[in-house]
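quick one, 134 residues, struct below
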Amino acid sequence: MTDYSCYITIINKSSVPLTNGFSDHIFGKYGIRPPTTIAAKTGKVEFKLEKKHIGGSTGFVKYDTGKGRIQFDYSCPLMFFKTNKLFFTNIDSGLTISFYGTTKAGFLSSIPAGEEGQFPANANPLSCIFIVTD
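---
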């Protein structure tokens, strides 16, 4: 069976914890839900948004930083005219976010080959690592 899941890893290397996590989805079902807090300096979380039906998987998680908010968005749609999406919204947090994506099924423990911000547009599943720094 084809896997249209999103495997997301977030590493928090910043000096502030990411708190008050709120996640939701448009398509799919969280097999592993994002946690509500990611510790400062060494925090690492992994979660999976699984394909539930024809829509594939599309969702987001957002966190407070004490100064602002960061939202991470991810999508591995099943529909042929749609493309994968990975992006973030950084509202006044003062933090830097970088991300890398691949179609390797499973969670990423290291940065995959390729440039920062690059990910496969039309392949599945979608695995991503977001890294938050000061």
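DSSP finds no helices and nine strands in the chain.
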